[in-house]
């Protein structure tokens, strides 16, 4: 099987991304038409307070491959990812965030590895985030390596490709930012195979970051220790 034979579901979790989601979706449709046999694009509007939902519905009307799924209220990053995974219908699942800090065109780097691995995950080349956010990410990766034995360069890089079969065994439950850690920890328990690929990272051009608030960070570290207590006998 080659990349051109793949049937691919792509989704974007989006919270207050009215300035980004149209361009990202248009780029995705244009890119995927050239790369894979069949695809769908799903916009997960996580209770946005701006016009993200309206823009998403308009895109679904414009493009037959696009669907919009809405949370009535903001439920959190993990909940948005779980909704996206649940909405996917094809053989492979890919997601990237709705903020366009990654370029969807670089999915071409991941697709050739899809048949041979359960998970293909990006890692950020020259990460374009403020120092406190980068420091938090470094600390998170080190702690996950220590507690959960997850030896991955960039756990929360929002550029990931999965075989649909991963989620026959891995059942994520997190509503918050810990969801990627939970998936990797459970995938490790099930001896799933993984490939890392470098992808470029860009400064946010439109909108504001929400994932680096002190409350979000505190909750993530609290949930990490809770996950460790739940899984440590299996790791």
Layout: helices, strands, pairs:
Layout: E1 7-14, H1 21-35, E2 38-46, H2 52-62, E3 66-71, H3 77-87, E4 92-96, H4 107-110, E5 119-125, H5 131-148, E6 159-163, H6 166-169, H7 179-189, E7 194-200, H8 214-231
Short summary of the structure?
39% of the residues lie in helices and 20% in strands.
Can you walk me through this structure?
With 235 residues, the chain is α/β, with parallel strands linked by helices. It has one domain: Spore Coat Polysaccharide Biosynthesis Protein SpsA, Chain A (Alpha-Beta Complex), CATH 3.90.550.10. The chain is 39% helix and 20% strand. The chain has a seven-stranded mixed sheet, with helices on both faces. α1 packs parallel to α2 (52-62) and α5 (131-148) packs parallel to α8.
CATH class: Alpha Beta
Shape: globular
Number of structurally distinct domains: 1
Arithmetic mean of pLDDT: 91
The largest beta-sheet arranges its strands as 3-2-1-4-6-5-7
SSE string: EHEHEHEHEHEHHEH
Number of helices: 8
Q: Mind summarizing the main beta sheet?
A: 7 strands, mixed
| End-to-end gap | 33 Å
Task: State the CATH superfamily name.
Answer: Spore Coat Polysaccharide Biosynthesis Protein SpsA, Chain A
Low-confidence sequence ranges: none
Q: What is the SS-derived class?
A: alpha/beta
Q: What amount of the residues lies in strands?
A: 15-25%
CATH topology: Spore Coat Polysaccharide Biosynthesis Protein SpsA, Chain A
Q: What integer value in Å does the Rg equal?
A: 17 Å
DSSP, total strands: 7
């Amino acid at each position: 099987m080659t990349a051109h034979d793949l049937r691919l579901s792509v989704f974007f979790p989006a919270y207050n991304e009215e300035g980004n989601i149209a361009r990202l979706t248009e780029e995705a449709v244009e890119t995927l038409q050239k790369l894979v046999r069949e695809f769908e694009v799903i916009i997960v509007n996580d209770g946005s307070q701006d016009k993200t939902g309206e823009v998403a519905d308009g895109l679904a009307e414009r493009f037959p491959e696009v669907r919009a799924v809405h949370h009535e209220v903001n439920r959190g990053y993990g909940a948005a990812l779980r909704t996206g995974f649940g909405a996917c219908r094809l053989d492979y699942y890919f997601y990237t965030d709705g903020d366009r800090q990654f370029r969807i065109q670089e999915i071409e780097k991941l697709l050739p590895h899809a048949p041979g691995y359960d998970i293909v995950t990006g890692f950020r080349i020259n990460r374009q985030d403020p120092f406190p956010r980068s420091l938090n990410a470094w600390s998170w990766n080190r702690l996950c390596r220590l507690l959960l034995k997850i030896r991955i360069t960039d756990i929360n890089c929002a550029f990931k490709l999965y075989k649909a079969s991963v989620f026959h065994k891995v059942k994520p439950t997190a509503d918050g930012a810990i969801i990627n850690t939970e998936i990797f920890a459970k995938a490790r328990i099930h001896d799933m195979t993984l490939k890392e690929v470098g992808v470029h990272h860009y400064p946010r051009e439109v909108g504001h970051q929400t994932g680096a608030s002190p409350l979000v960070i505190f909750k993530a570290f609290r949930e990490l220790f809770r996950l460790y207590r739940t899984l440590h006998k299996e790791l």
